[in-house]
Amino acid sequence: MEKRAELIIFGQVQKASFRYFIDELAFDLNLRGYVKNLDDGTVQVVCEGEEGAISELLDKININRYPVRVENIAVIYKKLTGEYKTFEILWSEDPVLEAYERADAFAECLRTIVRSPFGPFRKEAQF
Asked: Is 19 a catalytic residue?
């Protein structure tokens, strides 16, 4: 059965490419809605989709892995509205904040490459 969930995520969740992570999960889980940073430092997610997919999203975003530390997730279930066709990131109107967020996302990509078994800093790597 399809449901609607509205989440507020507390912790160290901004400036850590967390919205990109949530956007990718929502895409993989076929959820519709949005994710956005709120002025108080939290992240808001509104999503609609299968109940099991929403539960899986909740499990996967409850992480404590650098640079994200989720301390709490407040969840409110509401009546399905069907107003969303896709899932998207809602951007701030402040271009400086968004530039920092995108730089952090780029840094996370670099960390992933460096940590991979084939990363450039592995003993076996050749340039």
From this structure: yes
